[in-house]
Amino acid sequence: MLGICLAGARFVHLQVVQAENLSALAEQQRLRRIETPAPRGTIFDRSGRALAQSVRVYTVVADPHNISGFFDDYVAAREHNDEPVKQNLEGLHEELAYYFSEKLDVSAEELIEQFSRQAASGNLSRFSVLAREISPEVRMAVDDDAQNEPEDSPEQRLFKQALRHMVWELDYMRVYPMGDVAAQVVGFVNAEGYGAAGIELQFEEILRGTPGVSFTERDVAGNIIPAGVQRTIEAQRGSDIMLTIDAEITNVAQQELEAAVNNTRAEAASAVVMNPRTGEIYAAASYPGFDANEFNLADPEAIRNRALVDVLEPGSTIKPLTIAAALDAGSVSLSDTFYIPNSIQVGTRVVSDAVERPTEVMSVSRIMEVSSNVGTTRIAQQMGSSTFYDYLHEFAITERPGLDFPGAGSGHVLSPDQWSDVTLSNFSFGQGLSMSPLQISRAMAAIANDGVMTTPHLLRAVPDGSFEVPEREEVRVVSEEAARQTTQTLEAVMIEGTGRSVEVHNYEVAGKTGTAQKAREGVAGYVEGLYISSFIGYLPAEDPELLITVFVDEPRTSMFGAEVAGPPFANIATFTVRYLGLLPASP
What we know:
Elements: H1 2-17, H2 19-30, E1 31-36, E2 43-44, E3 50-62, H3 70-80, H4 83-104, H5 108-120, E4 128-134, H6 136-148, H7 154-164, E5 167-175, H8 183-186, E6 188-189, E7 195-197, H9 198-202, H10 204-207, E8 212-217, E9 230-233, E10 241-243, H11 247-264, E11 268-274, E12 281-287, H12 300-303, H13 306-309, H14 319-329, E13 337-340, E14 343-346, E15 349-352, E16 360-363, H15 364-370, H16 373-383, H17 385-394, H18 423-428, H19 437-448, E17 452-453, E18 459-461, E19 475-476, H20 480-496, E20 510-519, E21 526-539, E22 546-553, H21 561-564, H22 566-580
Parallel strand pairs: 2-10
Antiparallel strand pairs: 1-8, 2-3, 3-4, 3-5, 6-7, 8-9, 10-18, 11-12, 11-22, 13-16, 14-15, 17-19, 20-21, 21-22
């Protein structure tokens, strides 16, 4: 009776107390779960060119248990010290190794060592990965050899058997068909296949697919149980996305930036090409660049998209914002004139123009034409610190640009309560405050767009509709009249001012040159003799459809924006207007 009670208690414990855990354990032992990878969505440019796509590849795995007789014969030969059998099997190792070394582009010596170690280990390690990221063409070639090789001897039969029983595990590899073109925008994925930079990271949730999985219930010998669980959930491919980026425009921009860096012996350069009406970015390029297919070999400095991430002092390219703000606020009018010496005392600092000139009575337009720091300071003083700061805020210089890109740069502008006696002057001509090339592009686009600022963006569409592209916010920054008058002054810059050497044949351009001293990193002050040269402009001036910004970092041949950044601007613009079929606004 005691024994029956103990047995009954044990039954209750197993079938009631531990029932759930034991059932789950049994199911786990019976069920085989195999996961099938899902390809990521393709990233297209605005014209449908693939910038990033997933291609089918295989991981090649050798499993001696799949090769009938191989594993058992080898173990038996070891136990009975049967040298002929051992030599035959070792010969098979070598034959397989040299065969796969040619097919898979791996070392034959390493494969021989793998095969030998694998078989000699007994039951320690069944699987051995021979190679990864092998193309379907290679697999087909191996399959053909497995079927067509002659079987004139036991060794040849065993070799064919080995080929037939290699395990080919499906996988997907991310490739970038255009190499370095737009690589700093597109980014790349990490070793696990997750987005690690750029658009790949920004839209990871959209691009990443859902892996498939299959369940099969098997007995202790590994055989499928006919009445058991058999279920397969197919892998779901990630969604494709289409960018506003154009690969052709980007390619030209990258080439022009490289030429500018080489011609001026500069450290780096960046460019933004966008539609000022819609905020669509056609190109966001920088040099040096990198090939996304070999991102692991790239210099981190080359991976960074300077056009979207870096922050710098804009120099004179900010002067159109100063003028537009003053015109909109009613602080000045185009007909106003100012007495402009070559230098003036502002608080504790002497403000002077970059080019020495005699004292002159200048109009607002003339101040813009010659890019006078003294004249711009006079206009800003008419406006006042508080008003000017409010307009900087309206132009979104004090906030992030709202771009759909990870790590998009945001500049820094001190609030008026932190300003010194020279801050207003410095800010008016682009020193002492910072912003990204995209931020100054967005602000200038507001002037081009009749005073209305759009949100710059890179995502154009998700074709399958799985993600709704958000509406882009539009905000009026200055009046249409103030924007139009500012455009007039920028046209004068290109005709009679600092930008007259920069020409886009048959098109009227509204543009501004810029030169900024290079700020020291981490400490106040500037680096002696180092500058950032820039050019920003839009066209056709009367009805702008294209805005281009170029920054060149630390040029050695000249510091002036027209000489350094003007040529790449003109070349990019000349190509783009023809490529997009933009007509001049007037004959």
